[in-house]
Design goal:
This protein is globular. The chain is of the alpha/beta class. Strand 1, helix 1 and strand 2 form a beta-alpha-beta unit. The chain has a seven-stranded parallel sheet with strand order 3-2-1-4-5-6-7, sandwiched between helices.
């Protein structure tokens, strides 16, 4: 498999696993990150040391100028994007609905939903035939929170991922006849740094036993689903939202 892939939020977790798996399948990869330059470079260096091609691009996906600059950098250094994985997202602090600060709500919605929409827009400007493109594939990373609601934790996070689900379905229908497939994955409990960054470092240990499979997933298990949706094996799959949640 060859092509140019942008993976947002690729310095850790699901994004890192996806970038590494994509490079192993022959993609040239843009490792996007917001602030952790050292970690993003480590991911790119691993790809390059294994014979692949990768660049790192710092960009906050909630900021239009950053997103536009990132895709222009990819154009110049790797070529037009043919695959996009919208993985970048923020998990808010834990609030009940009556306590959510405006700043927290705005950050979550602009990053998780707005960032997905912005990155898709720029990818479509490279993929659509009317812009000289030859099609492509997009996978948006949602969350089981979009179906469960995340009550007592972060309902605004669940709402932001619900927006990703709706956007995925609508966009898939809009561009299906123009050679572009759009799908999403809904991870469940995944063993990543996300939990610690949201102030709950012991969350996985606490609730893993309550999952149907009695464990959390590794990021690589989600990456495998993402790469399948991007592959030719999924050539007739579009508008699908794949739950990767161990039966939840």
């Amino acid at each position: 498999m060859t092509g140019v892939m942008v993976v947002t939020g690729a310095s850790r977790g699901i994004g890192e696993a996806t970038a590494l798996a994509a490079a192993a399948q022959g993609y040239a990869v843009c490792v996007n990150y917001r602030s952790d330059t050292e970690k993003a470079q480590e991911v790119a260096d691993r790809i390059i040391s294994d014979g692949g091609k990768a660049i790192t691009v710092a960009a906050d996906v909630s900021q239009e100028d950053d997103v536009v600059r990132m895709f222009k950098t990819v154009d110049d250094e790797l070529g037009p994007v043919t695959a996009l994985v919208n993985n970048a997202g923020v998990v808010p602090n834990r609030y009940r609905a009556d306590e959510i600060p405006y700043e927290d709500m705005a950050m979550v919605l602009l990053t998780n939903a707005g960032g997905t929409i912005l990155c898709c827009r720029e990818a479509l400007c490279r993929m659509l035939p009317k812009h000289g493109g030859q099609g492509g594939a997009i996978v948006n990373v949602s969350s089981m929170s979009s179906t469960l609601g995340a009550a007592h934790y972060w309902v605004h996070y669940g709402a932001s991922k619900g927006a990703v689900d709706a956007y995925t379905i609508g966009l898939a229908k809009e561009v299906a006849g123009e050679g572009i497939r759009v799908n999403a994955v809904r991870p469940g409990l995944i063993d990543t740094e996300m939990h610690a960054r949201s102030g709950q470092p012991d969350r996985v240990a606490k609730i893993a036993e309550r999952q149907p499979m009695k464990r959390a997933a590794a990021p690589e298990e989600v990456a495998a689903g993402i790469l399948w949706l991007l592959s030719d094996e999924a050539s007739y799959v579009s508008g699908d939202i794949m739950n990767i949640a161990g039966g939840l």
